[in-house]
Amino acid sequence: MHEPTVVVDGRTLSLNAVIRVARFGAPVTLDEDAKLRMTRARQLVEAKARGGEAVYGLNTGFGALKNVRIPSSDLAALQVNLIRSHCVGIGPPLLEEEVRALMLLRANTMATGRSGVRVSTVQLVLDMLNAGVHPVIPCKGSVGASGDLAPLAHTALAMLGEGRSVLGGVEMDSKAALEKAGLAPLVLEAKEGLGLVNGTQAMTALGVLAVSDAEDLCFYADLTGGASVDGFRGTPVAFDPRIQAVRPHPGQETSAALLRRCLEGSKVVESHKECDSVQDPYSFRCMPQVHGASRDVIAFVRQTLEREINSGTDNPLVFAEPGEGDELLSGGNFHGQPIALGLDFLAMAVSELANISDRRVEQLIDPKLSGHPAFLVKASGLNSGFMMAQVTAASLVNENRVLCTPASVDSIPTSANQEDHVSMGMTSARKVREVIRNTRYCLAIELLCACQALDLVGLEPGRGVAAAHRALREVVPFLERDRTLHLDIEACAALMESGRLRETVEAALSA
Predict the structure, then answer these.
(1) Is 441 a catalytic residue?
(2) Which of 74, 160, 391, 420 has its CA 20 to 30 A from that of 475?
(3) Which domains, ranges and CATH numbers included, belong to the chain?
């Protein structure tokens, strides 16, 4: 099925549209009104270029070289030199979906009409997206002000037909990739190099993908937690809506409601209604409060990113709309602090989903706590069961704690102290990406343990839990005796990441 076309207008791009372009290859097109705004802005830039007034980045050097005037005959060379000199990225390249998100966001920012680039420059970015020409962009080298200079410069370098790009899964010279796609390299004009590199689009691109994944993990945290409740023979009393109503945090209410739906109709719950245990450990009982708090943080970060992706983050910004005075104004919208703080917060929120998940795993595998065979396997002793799976979860939780050290509290001055406070937002973005991967594995380990416990209990679990159990058992069988659990963990994590597990469970809940 073909994805609907995403219209780039600089004003209404949604996070879901970014995901469709980045992950599912949705085609993109440039809005006609955006073309008019960009044309007006470009006319002002060209008028300023012909005049004698000093305008930063148009006819001056960059950063600490802001006071060096550049002759009009060298303005095009100035922009090319900017791109080449700023290609200082190192490390592994960004993933294809990250590159696609970055390119789309940069095009959308330029479509606001605040960058002063030509319409044809933005069109080339969109043509490259549609043709699948993806620049090779090293992931390290940005301090997040003046935006993500190095990653964006590597993107622009490919547009010039320099550097390396990937087309059809094959890495090649960017010039060759453009030629194979039927595209001509860009010839920069005044301010266009600066218009391609000033902004937060690398950290924001990774942030958009991370928020989408984090929202998915919240669903799985509630689902796996619900499976653990049934596997532990716990009680859903703590999820009663009356409890949530007297502390009405939105995320808490959402998590509690999903837990109730997943556990609805559980024969396990019915089997021990009259038992002496009236309260479960915190890792079960406090799921709405803990998972819900993470949901609320993720919602805050989503809101921040939704504003950012339709913002003008260039410098100087071009004001050429009627009533704006026809000016180029230098400011600091390229500074990534809102994104950096948000992504550091996001990492902490996602990490907590792994933290509490690991505690539920411990409750399930300890025979003194669960009443199940040690490590959830028959003939334990001869078999180690899920003993080492919990060790892996503990390792990932520990790594997450290290990765949750905020990058945004640090600032190392750059550019001879002209750029004396920076956000380090790209570091925040790369960290949260790893926290999400670790957390998905932790939740996969919990689901494996919870479903093993459910089989040992031998009673029908709640409706949503039962759907998850059936889906998992299609790819991972019951653990009768020790086998290589690495493969089981990978299979369960892939089932989550693909979206198939969520689709199956949601279909069962809505039936």
Answers:
(1) no
(2) 391
(3) 6-199 (1.10.275.10), 207-510 (1.20.200.10)
